[in-house]
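Now read this:
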Amino acid sequence: MSYSNLTIANMQEEVQRLSTNWQTLLDAMPEMVFLLRDDGGVEYMNRSAKACFGFPCNDQAAQSLHAVGKRCQEQLGNRGKGTESGNVGTVESIIDTTPVEYSSVPFVGYTGEKLIMLVMRDITQRKKFELELLQFNTSIETILQQKIGELQASEEMRNKLMRQVNSLKSQLGHHHSADKMVGRSRKMRELREMIHQVSGSDATILITGESGTGKELVANLVKATSNREDKPFLKINCNAINDSLLEADLFGYEKGAFTGATARKIGKFEVVNGGTIFLDEIGDISPRMQVALLRVLQNGEIIRVGGNEPVQVDVRVIAATNVDLTQAVKEKKFRLDLYYRLNIINIDIPPLRERKEDIVELVSYFVNHYREAFKKEIDFVPKSIISRLLEHDWPGNVRELENLIQRAVLMAKGKMITEADLMFDQDPRIEQKGNDSYEIDAKLGLTPLKSIVADFEAVIIRRALDKFSGNVATVATQLNIGKTALYDKMKQYGISAKRTKQKGKG
């Protein structure tokens, strides 16, 4: 054999060795690898690809790969003109009936032929999770009941499901690190969409809602998603500061404006110039403060206490109140022109009783928070507790629920919350009705008869327990009702005889 023939033979052996090596390497990869020819035909499939689609591929899979190959040729050709590699990134598709994602690069075979390499992953499991998320959003109550049942079955399964749900929630739209609001109900999704829609402007925002709904959380998210995110942000509770002090605090004062004013003082509006100020409890400010605030909103200027010269400021105002400002305007307690200036954009927060599907998530959040704070080992909330929480009307909204869970976690003796640990706050709306009357006029036409009667019945039971110092047996006798039936009604209305006894001792 000649030297040249020997060299050629060695080269052929080397080529064969290299070919075997890279095929072995590709067969060891968990991802599927395909080499496609210019005509879309399959030149090579690694072991993972054969396991998924068979070898050779069925007709439907082959047609799908052919279409993918043509698409990759066009994209690689277009992008390859401006880039070194022509890589088109990751793409999702369906091969036969299997959902996949793949990336593609041009590949030159050892004999010089031009091929396309596809590196592909089966994403069936991920699509399954996405479907679960869709079901979570559209049928929350069904999913919650299913999850609760699974949580009762196994602690390991509970932890696994929690990780999955958290992962799926992170894929929901409008997610921001400053979003501390808990809940994925339809009303909460609409609230988040509203916030993200209006936060980018500099328009004044009025946040309304009942006490305890989380108006400050909304204000925080508005600021964090606005164009003034990196600018100063101050929060003022207008109801916590004396009126004259509030004016000086917000607008500043000149030297000699009043006793003790020994030097000029810059107010909050000047300090936060360029940023955002949050005025909570805006419905409680005095007529004089209303005039001063109107000047800021109309002209962008303030006048320091004791001064005459206006000072220009650039501040975005976010206001909040649980007062019905329209009624306050009718009663001449609030200026109509200021109301219009504040109410350019109104964000109304739904009360908890209108989004009860969020209660399970809120309970989980507060239990996790307070078990860490109190060094407790609580890891389970029974279904009976959840059902009772879902039945409650929550006049104090999320704040009332948080207080309830905080007390329950603190009082719990074991690893789970029990009925004995739940101590509901007395409904402040019932206290306002007085000792000898029950107002129904406000409910007529708005509340079903069954609910009105139930509220009236709860009032009677509470007053009877107060009168007889929480003695359930005596109350049952006086009301001519069985003791068991009375306990059932107390449970239904969230009434605790223990708290009545404690109140009587106090």
